[in-house]
């Protein structure tokens, strides 16, 4: 018996969530006493595949096929279900990412498995029963579910489980799935990137701004700081609601959950709904002109000052530091 974990890549590099789900699956495997097999689909180099050993996978199945270079929901679902059967997996773990949201129910149906999507904690395991907490309705509610089927599928929310290195190593095996024409009834012909910006859920540094910036015309100072730091940009909900910034940048309870090494919050009050999306950041820096702003309570470093004065000075200082 084994635990199977699906690892997503972008153009051959694993996403941060890939290491999260391997760490999550490894913690389950340690409890159940099963081996952990990872499966990768697409053009990923062996040196990247072998990195998965360091997070707890003892074997990596590598599916390389020109037709599978781009994500195809139906085909990927068939491959993962086939691999789960051939590995006698009793649990399939994947990220509850955009593609994971489509894949998880497909795999669960094919395996006649119970599905927990949006898992935010490890399951409590008692015999064949897994009890686990998941978020629902964009984290407005939480549910505890019991999975009692022989095979279980768990889709883990990105940034909800910490990556853990184990120092282990993995063997790499190629896996050739038996796909048919029907699996390719939808084909992705081309992927056009909407932006070259760093992806927010994956970012190690995030520069985020709120209503304190007064209007969209003032975002130049935020983008400049982000560029100097190699950071992604984010915002509070009212900012995206007002169309100052795109909704894809909205962080918090009803937006994206981030977990960067550094989160810089500029002109954001620190409402509880915003903090819900940033509280697992390693270091939080707050810039706010109100010393009583609630965000300072969770800040590692705080600057009380006007963003329009502080941010350009910070950017200039960082530019000098870099040169
Ligand atoms: P404000 O609360 O208006 O704060 C602006 C801050 O800027 C203030 O602290 C002010 O002191 C400071 N400031 C003003 N001028 C300057 C200056 N020149 N320099 C420096 N600082 C300055 N919010 C989210 O962000 N994410 C969510 O996911 C989210 N989900 C929600 C879900 C529900 C069900 C509800 C009810 C609310 C939700 N909200 C969410 C909204 C949340 O409650 C707050 O209203 C919101 O986060 C406030 O945004 P803000 O901090 O940008 O604006």
Automatic annotation (TrEMBL):
Keywords: Electron transport, FAD, Flavoprotein, Transport. SMART domains: ETF. InterPro entries: DHS-like_NAD/FAD-binding_dom (IPR029035), ETF_a/b_N (IPR014730), ETF_a/FixB (IPR001308), ETF_asu_C (IPR014731), Rossmann-like_a/b/a_fold (IPR014729). Binds 1 FAD per dimer. It holds the Pfam family ETF. Residues 3-188 form the Electron transfer flavoprotein alpha/beta-subunit N-terminal domain. It comes from the Bacteria. FAD binds at residues 211, 267-274, 288. Its cofactor is FAD. Signal peptide: none annotated. The keyword Flavoprotein applies. GO terms for biological process: fatty acid beta-oxidation using acyl-CoA dehydrogenase. GO terms for molecular function: electron transfer activity; flavin adenine dinucleotide binding. The keyword Ribonucleoprotein does not apply. Belongs to the ETF alpha-subunit/FixB family. This is Electron transfer flavoprotein subunit alpha. The lineage of its organism: Bacteria, Pseudomonadati, Bacteroidota, Sphingobacteriia, Sphingobacteriales.
